[in-house]
Amino acid sequence: MKPTLFVLAAGMGSRYGGLKQLDGLGPSGETIMDYSVFDALRAGFGKIVFVIRKDFEDDFRQVVLAKYQDKVPCEVCFQSLDKLPAGFTLNPERTKPWGTNHAVLMGKDVIHEPFAVINADDFYGKDSFQVLADYLKNLDGKQGDWCMVGYRVQNTLSEHGSVSRGVCTTDKDGLLTDVVERTKIEAKNGKIYFTENDVDTELALNTPVSMNMWGFTPEYFAMAEKGFSEFLQVNGQELKKEYYIPTMVNDAIVAGQATCRVLDTTSKWFGVTYAEDREMVVKKIQELVNQGVYPAKLF
After folding, report:
1. Which of 213, 216, 217, 204 is nearest to 265 (CA)?
2. How far apart are CA 119 and CA 21, in angstroms?
3. Where along the chain do its domains lie?
4. How far apart (Å, rounded) are the C-alpha atoms in residues 180 and 267?
5. What was the pLDDT predicted at 19?
6. Which is the CATH superfamily of the domain at 4-148+210-290?
7. Angle at 132 (CA atoms; ends 126, 138), nearest 5 degrees
8. Among the listed residues 267, 297, 284, 281, the one whose alpha carbon sits nearest the alpha carbon of residue 118
9. What is the pLDDT of residue 140?
10. How many angstroms separate the CA atoms of 23 and 246, rounded?
């Protein structure tokens, strides 16, 4: 069975302005999601599932899905604050989303095979989809054999200043043991450092970092729903607390319910966080087209 690609596209790009997921950045108006779908299809994924907000369904179907829904089976599911496990009610004052793990839970009724999870507005690159697909294709019938794509930190830096990244630690078998959020990561004199308490600490150029590109087996949904229920018992009336994928993964690893293999990739990550990033992304995509990595028109 071919794996499924699950795209988290429910967020508004408030800092960038507007729905950056629908912004045409490629030479023929392609969105970043278009490149993810294109890379996923040639890597061997067999279905695409998007989680979006109901209020921009029409725009999404017209701008995104219409381009390739006849080329691959597509499903759309919806994230809303009031979609909670039985027994829990929404604090009417809450406006902030529940986090990435809540978004993943929206796909539980339409995904029954090994699946990958990505952000809609991150450009992940051809190789990352290939290594992820190759791993997921061998997971039919397995449980708790998860993975994440670990980007080499040197391939995730910004030209506009320092970045924050989840720095990964693995054991001798390449399994994830820890993810620590490091802030103020940047290159200085050919080396990479993170700064904490005004102290610079060097990171090896190939240090794996998480860019929210995961691979799971379908029992993840039941485990995540249980974890989310436990989260809500403590934080259900909070207005800002969120339940993230790395929290769920870490809890499963600690409990001995799953392992998470860190997959190396040569891909370079880039994305649009601020409006000023747009020109850089357009330029990098055009360079990849010029190199023959992508056609000038994807679909």
Report:
1. 213
2. 10
3. 4-148+210-290
4. 22
5. 55
6. Spore Coat Polysaccharide Biosynthesis Protein SpsA; Chain A (3.90.550.10)
7. 140
8. 267
9. 84
10. 28
Give 28's contacts (C-beta < 8 A, 6+ positions apart).
296, 297, 298
Give the model's confidence band at 17: pLDDT under 50 very low, under 70 low, under 90 confident, else very high.
very low
Give the dihedral of Cα atoms 176, 181, 187, 190; nearest 10 deg. Answer: -30
Q: What is the pLDDT of residues 45-66, one digit of tens each?
A: 999 999 998 888 888 888 788 8
What pLDDT sits at residue 60?
83
Distance between CA atoms of 25 and 113, rounded to whole angstroms?
A: 31
Across the chain, what does the average pLDDT equal?
91
The whole-angstrom separation of Cα 152 and Cα 209 is: 6
Please state, in angstroms and as integers, the Cα–Cα distance from residue 278 to each residue in 264, 268, 282, following that order: 27, 16, 6
pLDDT of residue 62: 83
d(CA 238, CA 126): 40
For residue 220, give every residue at least 6 positions away whose Cβ sits within 8 Å of its Cβ, in sequence order, or none: 104, 146, 248
**Helix H or strand E segment including 32:** helix 32-43
* Residues 114 and 139: beta-carbon distance below 8 Å: yes
Q: Both tokens of residue 10? A: 């429910």
Which among 152, 51, 169 is positioned nearest to 110, based on CA atoms?
51
CA end-to-end distance (rounded Å), the chain: 24
